Amino acid sequence: MNHPNEEELIAYHGGEPARREAIATHVADCSECQVELARIDAVLSALSSLPVPDPGADYGARVWQKIAPRLPERPPVRWWQFDSSSLAAGWRAWLEPRRLAALGAVAAIAIVAFLAGRVTKQPPPVAVTADASKIRERVLVMAVGEHLGRSEMMLIELGNTEPENSKQKEVNISGERRRAEDLVEENRLYRQTALEQGDTALAGVLDELERVLLDVAHSPGEVTPAQLDEMQQRIAARGILFKVRVVGKELEQRERSAAPATVQNGLGTGERNKI
Amino acid sequence: MEATGDSDAIAVERTLAGDRDAFRVLVERHSPNVFRLAFRMTGNQHDAEEVVQEAFLRAYQKLSQFAARANFGTWVYRIAANYAIDRMRQRKSEDANREPAPRANDDGIEVDAMSFVPDSAPNPERLAQSEQLAEHMRRAMQELTPAERTAFVMRHWGGSGIEEIAEALKSSSSAAKNTIFRSVQKLRRALEPFVEARGQARSVGTES
User: Fold this and answer.
1) Model pTM score
2) What are the Cα distances from residue B173, in Å, to A23, B113, B163, B178?
3) Complex ipTM, two decimals?
4) Cis peptide leading into A125, omega within 30 of 0?
5) CB contact under 8 A, A38 and B197
6) B150 close to B169: Cβ distance less than 8 angstroms
7) For residues A202 and A1, which has the higher predicted lDDT (pLDDT)?
8) Which of A104, A107, B115, B133 makes the best surface tag, with the fewest CB within 10 Å?
9) Closest partner residue to B35 among A28, A55, A77, by Cβ?
10) What are B104-155's pLDDT values in tens digits?
11) What is the distance in angstroms between the Cα of B76 and the nearest Cα belonging to chain A?
12) Separation in Å, CA of A231 to nearest CA in chain B
């Protein structure tokens, strides 16, 4: 055979099976190709000597520490792996009215997304996609707006709670705690949806809100005045009420301007990103 | 290897069943290897560490798409390669915005790195270990496009097959083959003057 060209020799050196035997036979008898192959090998061997820093024996543990807080609460589940008991328990939990409302909003978004996907297969796609995404955004905006309103109300009430007199040893916040538990569930759903929609700014505020809600949800039903004071200060320090109000206001504006006739892109995100 | 593969598969299933700590096992087991490859791709520790973290985050998010019989190490490595390309492209465009200057001589003509090649290459035995050669090699790697560097690293250090590389590059197999060839060709052009084949006619790769 003729001399293999450079590409063939490089592929041969890399273990490529194509024409392997023919090239091997040729190279065995051809000093020119042997030299060429040795040159390729010399460069690649030299490159292999380039040092790679040793990240350390505890590197894997450090990676885990970095990523663990950023992992979603629950891993993605293969849909066929649900067993019937967990499915039933899941449905019971979801059938509570407030969660149902949240689920309804998310389902509506999913349906709109599905329809948009179907419709956009037909030309002309641009306007339809814009409309569908606008409707989707509007459904999310309305639902999240209501959720923020409820969260704000609970936090204000908690912030205004105080012992009736200076001798009172325990303050009952079990009502707020129960509301916070429900709000956490809703909040997770909206945060994930916002993330899926690519609305990272909204997801960020919901993430912060979730931490505060979890704080309240995990507190005992009765707290000492000092504990209550601490909790109120923690909430105040995060400035979450302010952020919730700003986002709530902005969502109202988005809702108003997201009427189907007035399709605009990127409504309000610029403002919200400034928070 | 088989045992690791089996326990990887178990860890994946346990993670999918809701056990986050099972994922930790996978992270701790595969991080060093992904790091080595990420470092070769990005050429610096900071970016490599970012690639490793992002690869495992994405792997967790996509875990339900992981085929049970696949090799987790290979899979997460491909995710890392994919992200590394994006990261390098982004870094390249950031750098391009910052420093517009390829080296130019007094006449304003771009200087070809090859013009620095000495007439007679220095003794390769001594140079092989030298920092000077290492610097040439680092530079040659940096001169590759992100896709070329990824393809080269996957092929020569990761032992990846053409199909795997094509998938990471989001290209066809023939395009991936071509990218590998171009990368080796460029590295040869840049480095051969500094690296001389030891002994003539070593019968490399002729064993089969």
Assistant:
1) 0.52
2) 21, 31, 6, 9
3) 0.77
4) no
5) yes
6) yes
7) A202
8) B115
9) A55
10) 444 444 433 333 334 445 555 555 557 788 889 999 999 999 999 999 999 9
11) 14
12) 29
